[in-house]
Amino acid sequence: MKALLIIDMQQGSFKPYTLRYDTFGVIDRINELSQQFRKSGDLVIFIQHDGTRENCFLPGTEDWSLLPELIRGPEDIFVSKTTNNSFYKTDLQTILKSRGVKELIVTGCATDFCVDATIKSALTRDYFITVASDGHTTADRPMVPAKQVIVYFNWLWSEMTPTQGMIKVESCHAILET
Fold it and tell me: Distance between CA 158 and CA 160 in Å, rounded?
């Protein structure tokens, strides 16, 4: 079984929507992937950052809520996290193991923080990982434009040494074709 991880696509991270690179394109591609996963009977897991310790992204607030453009299904799973790593002190690993998930497709925000931390953590847990190269986004950083950050991390992940699993980086279109 496979699981699509949709990380931190929350309203508070996208104010204004132009803050993140290719926001609407990323949303559209994530929606295409999630629809395919639901049709195939695979898992769709939304991960939301709970920033209670930082006094932001408080559960139940508008900032904590998922972007309204994201399609949700009745069988989707929601996981709350408190750090960049979606596995750290969450029930994500338990959910994946109980459902026999071996393969993860990773999307979300922000490329260089929560997406990266989650990918590296999943790699050490021996998952087969596919990063949707055009299914994650970030904002411009002090010395690097967002588009360059995305290109760099796609390269970095494609060059990582696999554990018992493997890691690859593919476009959403290529993922949909497999």
Answer: 6
Q: In what order do the strands lie in the sheet with 77-81?
A: 77-81, 43-49, 2-7, 103-109, 128-137, 166-170
Whether this model's pTM surpasses 0.90? yes
Instruction: Tell me what pLDDT residue 178 has.
Output: 85
Given a contact cutoff of 8 angstroms between Cβ atoms, the answer to whether 153 and 112 are in contact is: yes
Task: Give the mean pLDDT of 24-39.
Answer: 98
pLDDT band at 48 (very low <50, low <70, confident <90, very high): very high
Residue 178 makes CB contacts below 8 A (sequence gap 6+) with: none
Among the listed residues 129, 128, 134, 130, the one whose alpha carbon sits nearest the alpha carbon of residue 172: 134
Alpha-carbon distances, residue 16 vs 5, 29, 126 (angstroms): 23, 20, 37
> What is the residue type of 143?
M
Distance (Å, rounded) from C-alpha 82 to C-alpha 164? 27
- Sign of the four-CA dihedral 96, 20, 172, 77: positive
Identify the three-state secondary structure at position 108: strand
